[in-house]
Amino acid sequence: MALRTRTSLAVRQQDCSDENSRVLVLGLGNILLKDEGIGVHVAAELQKQGLPANVEVIDGGTAGLDILLLQEGLDKLVVLDAVRFGKEPGTIYKVRLSAGEKDKLARIFGPDNESKISLHQVGLIDALAAAEKLSCAPKEIVIIGIEPKEITHGLELTEQVKQKIPKIVNTVLEEIRDAVHTR
Fold first, then answer.
1. Do the Cβ atoms of 175 and 7 come closer than 8 Å?
2. How far apart, in whole angstroms, are the C-alpha atoms of residue 112 and residue 2?
3. pLDDT tens digit string along 49-104?
4. Which DSSP letter does residue 24 get?
5. Residue 144: which of 70, 90, 106, 71 has the closest Cα?
6. Where do runs of H (alpha helix) occur along the chain?
7. What is the per-residue DSSP string for 106-145?
8. Are strands 92-98 and 140-146 parallel, antiparallel or unpaired?
9. Would you give the DSSP letter of residue 37?
10. Cβ atoms of residues 81 and 116 within 8 Å
């Protein structure tokens, strides 16, 4: 596998609705564990939308982070996943990172932080570190976490989380339309 290089990792201001920018929306989760599958459910809803050609939505399931290493030239990566911070079920959290800020993600979701409920966040940190070494890290990463109610066996989302899907979809659509932020 050849190493990919990029001439500049500088984050530039641009509109993500611009067809020259690349946006990847990655829904993560295990649909066999009720609310743990919220990222996958939202990705399925987003795939029904009429999204611009420069936006790709992928159901990453439980092993979707390897997909990140196969992407080159991403301007924005939006990750959807269940995240437990102890708030009301369905609460939406958003964390924005620029290229090279994976350490911020590690502080929020790292192994010593009790908010982490799955291995997806740790896998994301590892995937971003590898992408940085290959010079193919996204210019901006937005994590949209959703507070679960139940992480138990079952295929259906709980009603409290399911009712939030339209709001979560709108949050993602706003991110797709939003410019890549500079620091």
1. no
2. 35
3. 989 999 999 988 776 556 665 667 788 989 999 998 889 999 999 988 876 666 66
4. E
5. 90
6. 38-46, 66-69, 102-109, 120-133, 159-162, 165-177
7. HHHHSTT-TT--SSHHHHHHHHHHHHHHTT---SEEEEEE
8. antiparallel
9. G
10. no
Burial 146-176 (b: 16+ CB within 10 A, else e): bbbbbbeeeeebbebbbebbeebbebbeebb
- Compute φ and ψ for 6, nearest 5 degrees: -130, 140
Angle made by CA atoms 71, 137, 9, in degrees to the nearest 5: 120
Strands of 140-146's sheet in order across: 55-61, 23-28, 76-82, 140-146, 92-98
Domains of the chain, CATH where assigned: 15-180 (3.40.50.1450)
The tens digit of pLDDT for each residue in 126-175 reads: 667 776 766 667 888 899 999 999 999 999 999 999 999 999 999 999 99
* Total count of residues recorded for the chain: 183
Using alpha carbons, select from 165, 166, 163, 171 the residue that is nearest to residue 78. 171
Token code pair at residue 51: 């999204």
User: Angle, nearest 10°, between helix axes 38-46 and 165-177?
Assistant: 60
